[in-house]
Design goal:
By secondary structure, the chain is mostly beta strands. The chain has 1 helix and 30 strands.
């Protein structure tokens, strides 16, 4: 298929030999054709391009399998519409640039320490995804970042697939599943196309992820339970300014850019989410840097890695319940029969639903009886052995 060489654009990074820290990269487009195929190292404080790292139709590369490291194709060059890039993340620890192409079910990367004459691009498939999945833009990865735990994270447009990818000698990709709306303001959902698709993602020093959507909505994501908390909408941006790229600069400030505006870069206060003009610069569809939000001077963020084993959990959402039902997500739990119970705070059982979990990822909807008064209750999940697998309070509104 014609899109199979698209992410290689990033390869140019292999030619970069400057220091690993302090770099910011931007995906930009040809001024007239608006094809997001160019990759530049930029100075966001001035808006100037430090150097072009990849220019459409000008860079040939070799494509390699990310696991076997064997060559897949002879040198090729991106031409026409085959170089579109959706998201980027910079791993300063290993000096690698990771890229998500627009129409391929893969993540690709370039080792910037590789001094080979011909650039090498490595590719790794997304687990469970095929080319057919990528015909639906809900499955496009548009948000990507590196986190303090040493792993990268990538999120699909619809928020139903949070991928973790390792960045060392062996790159593995794990699908952590769907994000779940949480907190007091669940009326703005992380899954909503009109408010929550596109944009970019950054990581905080404590391991939380912050999603800046293309529509200026801000969500905080706690990776360990995949909960998404709507925080605010960014104010102070020009009309028609979509927030497509986001990165933390050397001063610890959040910088955003737009693919839809020529107004340049804006700085966003992460306490009140107000934006102000930072510098001029070309339109860009994504930013990537090596810094974390809320990182103190000389602080080295330390975060225990989140693994698939730590995600063997049960999650109940939304909380509070506002539409007469809640959902129970079973992730990597034992299959078999479970009971979902709702009790009052005194322990009196008000609901008991028998369910059968048959897959390692299963979502169950539980209708709340119409006779149940508004207030605080307990949700309990009992496994086949009769043991309590989950207990938490839930608010019925």
């Amino acid at each position: 298929m014609k899109y199979k060489i698209l992410p290689v654009a990033l390869l140019l990074f292999a030619a970069a030999t400057a220091q690993k820290q302090g770099k910011t990269f931007a995906i930009t487009a040809d001024s007239q054709q608006r094809l997001w195929m160019n990759l530049n190292e930029v100075d966001v404080s001035t808006g100037k391009i430090i150097r072009p790292l990849f220019e459409r139709s000008k860079t040939s590369f070799l494509l390699y399998d990310g696991t076997s490291k064997t060559k897949i194709e002879a040198p090729v060059t991106t031409t026409g519409n085959t170089g579109l890039m959706a998201a980027a993340a910079f791993d300063a620890r290993h000096n690698k640039l990771f890229i998500a192409p627009m129409y391929l079910p893969v993540i690709r990367w370039v080792d910037m320490d590789d001094n080979n004459t011909t650039l090498k691009v490595y590719t790794q498939p997304l687990p469970g995804f095929t080319d057919q999945h990528m015909q639906n833009d809900a499955n496009h990865i548009t948000r990507m970042t590196m986190a303090p735990d040493g792993n990268g994270y990538a999120l699909t447009n619809d928020g139903n697939h949070l991928f973790q990818f390792t960045t060392g000698k062996k790159t593995t990709i794990t699908d952590f599943g769907a994000l779940q709306d949480a907190g007091a303001q669940t009326q703005i959902s992380i899954h909503n196309r009109c408010s929550s698709w596109g944009g970019d993602m950054i990581a905080a020093a404590n391991g939380d992820l912050y999603i800046i959507t293309a529509y200026q909505s801000v969500f905080k994501v706690t990776v360990i339970d995949r909960k998404a908390y709507y925080l605010a909408n960014i104010t102070g941006l020009p009309a028609n300014y979509t927030t497509n790229g986001a990165a933390i600069n050397t001063q610890g400030e959040l910088i955003v850019c737009s693919a839809n505006s020529t107004e340049g870069y804006y700085k966003v206060d992460m306490q009140n989410w107000k934006a102000q003009k930072h510098s001029n610069g070309a339109s860009a569809s994504d930013l990537a840097s090596s810094y974390f939000a809320f990182q103190q001077p000389n602080q080295i963020p330390v975060q225990q890695p989140v693994t698939k084993e730590t995600l063997q959990r049960i999650v109940v959402y939304p909380n509070p319940v506002t539409e007469g039902l809640f959902r129970v997500s079973f992730d990597n739990r034992e299959t078999g029969n479970y009971q979902v119970q709702v009790t009052d705070l005194g322990g009196r059982q008000l609901l008991n639903k028998q369910i059968n979990v048959t897959t390692n990822k299963q979502l169950i909807e539980v209708a709340v009886p119409a006779t149940l008064a508004k207030g605080l209750y307990l949700v309990k999940i009992i496994n086949a052995a009769g043991k309590n697998a989950y207990t938490d309070k839930i608010m019925i509104q």
